[in-house]
Each structure stands twice: as structure tokens, then as C-alpha cells.
Amino acid sequence: MVEDGGHVGSAHPRPHRPRCRPGDPAAGPDRRAYGAVRRPQRPGGPPARRGRRGGDDPPARPARRLLRRRHPRGHRPGRDRLLQRAGRRGARPGGALPADHHAAVRAAGARGRPRARPVPARPAVCAGPHHAGPGVPRVHDRRAHRRVHALPGRLRHAGALAGVRGGPQRRGPPRPAGRPGAVRGGRAGLGLRYGRRRRGRAARRGGGADRPGLAAAAVDDRLRVRNGRGTAAAAARRLPTPRGRPARAPTARPQGRQGALRPPGPREPRRQRHPPRRLRLPDPLPGVRDPRPRPAGRAVRVEAARHHGDGAGRRRARSRLLPGHGRRHHAAHPPPGAVAGRVRVRRHGRRRRRGRRVQPAGRCRALPGDRGSERPGQAVGRCGDPGAGPGTGTRERLRPLRDPADVRLGGRRRARADPVGRPARPGCPRHAARAWAGTRRAGGGPPARGTAERFAGRGGAGRGGTVRRRGHHRRPPPTGRRRHPWSTRVGGGAYGTGRPDGAGPTLARAVTRCGPDPRADPARAGPARRVPPLPAVRHRSGPRPGGRCVNLLGYRRVLVVTAVEPERQAVLRGLRTVGGADDTVVVEVGGVGSASAAATTARVLAQQRFDAVLSAGIGGGIGVAIGGTVIATSSVAADLGADSPDGFLSLDELGFGTATIAADPDLVAAAAKALPNAVSGPVLTVSTVTGTLAGTRDLIARHPRAVAEGMEGFGVATAAIQAGVAFGEVRAVSNPVGPRDRAAWRIGEALEGLSETFACLAKLTL
Ligand SMILES: O=C(O)c1cccc(C(=O)CC[C@H]2O[C@@H](n3cnc4c(=O)[nH]cnc43)[C@H](O)[C@@H]2O)c1
């Protein structure tokens, strides 16, 4: 029986056919490929018998085991095995193979071990069936490397990497987005070859003393695992792979070989996406601030949360969520550029906890006479605000940062007293209490505030000294404690019931500052919220030193809202004839229509402080000649209601409130004094310009005292009275109300009249 590369047990051995690699200098006639040494049979000698080994015979049993186990076809002993045999006392298995295995083989030969022969250095296992070149084994060599098949499925199914990698290039094919880093050729290939050995020995022992490079590679391997990349990192953490199986332990790679086939150039820097969860850095000493840099992101959160396992720790952890912010609470000390939002707090492996808002300053700290101190992005309490959420005080909402208005105002926004007037919320007693009297009882009227009321609560100093706050949705003060001083009733003003003269029952309204009283319940008050106050917008009570001041109708600051730009320009022209427009009078274009005008007015009133609002423009005259001026004693939403077979039903008749808002009597009086030729009376606000005779008759029948119609007055009035600002409306007649005749409109004449009107309304104060 002969053992050769063919059939075991054959009585007729085949003639030896050396199999050499092309250009293998070590291959000779007596040496078979891949190192198996066969001595030629002596001519005439007896066939080699099993169990008998001569001095020149190869060791039969180990070779047989090797062939059976590793080489089903029985003629390729396998490179690893040969290297193991060759390196028992020389090159160590799993070591820095290409670098020193030749020396190991030479050493073995010197010790009389001729069985091993050099094996060309093989930088990587090649998946291709072709012979890629010296040192690159063929594809069937993979059979000698079972580790290939033991790799995670993700690697085995890496598309073009049918075997291991895409070719002799170390990087393999381009890695698709999202493909784990372990699929990359370099690491995968080296891991295949050396993974088991290194894990078993080299990695644990850190390599041999004669292989410092490998020791460094092992250290590097550990670091790389901690850096948490790809499948290898998952294996280190024993996290399941996407296929549901635990990932294998990571493999190391000898750094000295890593760049063998890598394109020259600097190595791609390793990115650290997420710090590993198992990475525990040594805790800082108690009381000593951790000097390690704290990058923004999850690492800090995880680490900070772990440093403190109790609730206080979590709170402390929250306080460090922003970079460069140390232990200060970012709510109390917002870093520059901090953006409002929720804080994600990781704690003890849970996915996410709905965090508290970072947004500071949910409290209005305005003192009497203050302008408030809100900035864009600050929180302002509102009921039913969709921006409010769990963890947010009921009185907080986030104002958008850097909205156009804020930009225009230099990023500044002042607090105002609920200018929009949010709708009543069911079940909210405070909202119910705030409902306008006119909407709650028969005969109720509009929330027209009388002049006396508006000026009553100012301590005689006018409106300018107080920031009004509506304290709805406040938590009642705890029993036994007095109402905290943050809740301040200002004025207790009365609101009209809808009658244009403002008469009727009144509804006292508590005006409170917002925010919980920290003294009433410090535990609920939350962290201190300190926001540097804005420079107050000074309310000018007189002319500037050395300058001139336009005083419109005696009000210190007046907002004029027009529908279109030509009207605005006409107003400005009139003001300039007096003394030049300055910031005591602001003229805004609010758009055509009541809704747009109301929105614009509300926005501007929320941004700046005014003492009076005027709706101004041109309009259709009812009994007033073109070019004339009308002063509204009230603004009436003439078509706000319901149509019916019995005729039009107004809002008042429907019981939904009032469609009439009285103008400020003082303002009306002042305007009438300044414009002796103007006609005073109700001015109608319509959504559709009256254009038929029937429509005109019907309108006049319902509003016999009306002197003109426009399209914006009621909207401006609504915003003004909800902001607690005096309201008035003046219009220059451009056309008669009646059958539509656009050619009869005298817009230019009306605009000229508008300019003259404002020139008369304004007085120059030196
Ligand atoms: O076309 C122009 O050059 C021009 C210049 C300035 C203003 C206009 C307007 O169309 C203004 C529309 C504005 O005027 C009010 N208005 C004028 N006449 C009536 C009317 O008969 N019925 C209702 N409104 C009228 C209204 O407030 C519009 O907003 C054009």
C-alpha cells in the first residue's frame, strides 16, 4: 500500500508527478507542491509498508490525518498545516507569517527537518478561481480554511464576496452604504487567516516577544473593538448580528501586512460613530471634575447617567447634555446658540426617555414698568398650546427662534398680554371665566374696553407702565398659603358688552404674571431660569433730546395698518409733511381683508408696544363724497353672520358675539377735532365690495348710520382690543358704495386725501 497523492491503498503507485507552482524556486523534482516530500522508491526495493518508516520516509500517520481532514482530494496538504509543521520551533503558527516563515523553514531545515518547504507568502486568500499570481492561492484553498465558512453570515453573503473578497485588492469591491465595516476586504481577509489563532493565543497573550508587531496588532484589535465598528464590534459586545446570531469575536490584523496591497496613501482615519456601551472609563475622583473632553452626543449622556444611578444622578446627567457646559444647568445658563428642543436622556440601557425641554425662562419676570424679558425661543405659558408637552410646564410654550419678525426686530421679542386671545378650552374654568361677556349672556356685547377701564389700572401712568399677563391655567395656590405676589391683579378693568358706547355689565378680569411662583412650591418651580434681560424698549414720553417727535392724536406710539402699500405711502407722506416719520408712528401693510389685517396687527402688537392702532386707507363712501374723510365711531363686520330667507342674520342675532367694535372715544374725539370736515359714524367692514344696487340698499337698511365701507377695519379692531390697545379707523373715500363702476373710483384723489388726513392728525412736538 502506497501513500501518495492518489489512492490510498493502491498496490500500484502512480508515477510521481511533481506539482509545482510556476516559478517556485524551492520546487524540485523530489518535492511536491505545497511541501509534501516524497522520496523516490528505490529501484527494486520493496514497496513501502505501512507502519514502517525509514529514516528518509515521511511521517505517514500525521500526513494521512492531514490529508483526510484538510484535503478531500488528498493532494494538497494545505499551507497552514505546513506552516504549523514548519514552524513548531521556528515560526509560530498564527504569527507574522509572511515576514519570518522563510527564516523559520530555513531554521527547521538546519535542524534536519527537511519535510517542510517554503510556501510563498500569501497576503490574502483569493476568492477567484484564477491564479492571481504568486502567493495568491486558488479558490479551492478555501477548503483548507474552515474559518471562512464559520464567519458571520453577513460576511459570507457579501454579494460579490462569494468567497472572501473580490480579488487580490485588499479593499475588495466598493462597500455599499450601510454595509458593516467588517465586510471590508482588509480586515475580513486577515481575520480569516489569522483570526482563530490570534484569538486563541496571540490576542490573549499579546503575541510573542519576537513579534512586537503582532502584539501591537492585538492591542490595536482591542481598541478597534472598543471603537465599536461593524460586525466585529458587535461580536465584541456579543450583540446579535442582523441575522439574529451572535457575531463572532473580532479578528485582529497584523498591522505590518495591512497595507501590502492597499493603495499607497494615508490611511483612512477611523471614525468613532458611537462609543461602545461597554466602554467604561475610570470614574473621576469624587469632587474632582472630570478633565476628559466631553464631546456632544450620546457618549456623554450615557456616561453621565451611569455615574449617578439615582434620580439625582439623572438630573445631574441632564445638566451636562450640552458640550462645554460643565455641570451648570443649561436651562439656567443657556450656552450660546443653544436651540430649544427636547433632551434625550439615556439611562440604564433604555431606549429613550422623553426629556424635559431645554428651553429656559418660562416665566415672565417683568416688573411693573418693565418691557418684559422674553427672547425668541423662550417659553410663554399658554393653554392648549400644541407646543407644550409632557415635562413642560403648562404655562410654557416655545417661541420659534429667529422667525422673520424677530430677525427684523433684531432677534428681540417682548412679552405681551396674550394678544391673540386663544379660544376657550373646554373644561378650563379660567378660560370660561375669561370668555367675553357678550358671548356668554344674552344681550352681551363686544369686548370693547372703555377708555376709563384701559387707563384705570395703570396707576395713573397710562398703559405704558405695565405688562399684562393673563394667568389662566394657573395652579391654585396651596391651601394655607397666600396668593403669591407673582399673581397680580392689574386694574380689574371692565369690558364692554358690545354696545358701541361701551356701556353695560362688566367682567372683571384678573391679569396675572405667568409662571409658577417658586416660593409657593419650589419643588414644582423647576431649575432656576435666568435669562439676561433684554434692554428695555423705552417708551418715549416726549421728544428726543435735540430732535423732533411726531405726536399722532396725542398717543405716544401709534400703529397704522393699511391694506396696500400705496395707502401706506400716502400715510407716510402725510406724516412727513409734519415733521418726518419716526418710530412713534409705525405704518404697516396688513393686506386686503379682515383676516389678514387682524393677523398683521396682532403680530406687530405682539412685537412692539403701541398705545393706539389705526386702520387707515381708502374706502367706499356712503353718503360721503369722493375725497372726503370718514372717522369711524365703530367698525362693523357687516357681512359676518348668516343669510336666510328672512334676511341677513348678524353675529349678534345668531348669539355668537358681536360684529361691532367701538372705536376709542378719545381717539375719535381727537380725530374729529383734528379733522373738522370729516364725517364720523360707523364704518362697515365687508368681505366683498358692494357692487349692486340691491346690495347697497340692503346694507344701508341694516346700517343706516354707516358712513363708509372698507375691508379691514373690523380685523384691525379685533386685534387691537384683544391687545388692550385703543382702536380707531379713518378712511378717505375713493368711490361711492353702489353699483360697481371701477372707472369711477378716484383712487389717486383718495390717496391724496389720506395724506392730508394724516398730516392733520399728526402734530409736531419739539
Ligand atoms: O389700484 C390701485 O392703484 C389701488 C391703489 C390703492 C388702493 C387700491 C385698492 O383697491 C384698495 C382696496 C382697499 O380699499 C378699500 N376700498 C376701497 N373702496 C372700497 C369699497 O367700495 N368697498 C370696500 N372697500 C373699499 C378696501 O378696504 C380695500 O382693501 C387700489
TrEMBL record:
Task: Quote the pathway field.
Answer: Quinol/quinone metabolism; menaquinone biosynthesis
Bias type Low complexity, positions: 118-129, 228-257
Please note every region of biased composition (Gly residues).
Answer: 490-501
Enzyme Commission no: 3.2.2.26
Annotated InterPro entries? FL_hydrolase_MqnB, Nucleoside_phosphorylase_d, Nucleoside_phosphorylase_sf
Tell me where in this chain the Nucleoside phosphorylase domain is found. 577-743
- Bias (Basic residues) occurs at 62-76, 194-204, 270-279, 346-357, 466-486
Is-annotated flag, keyword Cytoplasm? no
Classify the source by domain of life.
Bacteria
- Name the SUPFAM superfamilies on file: Purine and uridine phosphorylases
Regarding protein family, the annotation reads: Belongs to the PNP/UDP phosphorylase family. Futalosine hydrolase subfamily.
Q: What does this protein do?
A: Catalyzes the hydrolysis of futalosine (FL) to dehypoxanthine futalosine (DHFL) and hypoxanthine, a step in the biosynthesis of menaquinone (MK, vitamin K2).
HAMAP family, alphabetized: MqnB
The protein's name: Futalosine hydrolase
* Natural source organism: Planosporangium thailandense
Q: Which gene encodes it?
A: mqnB
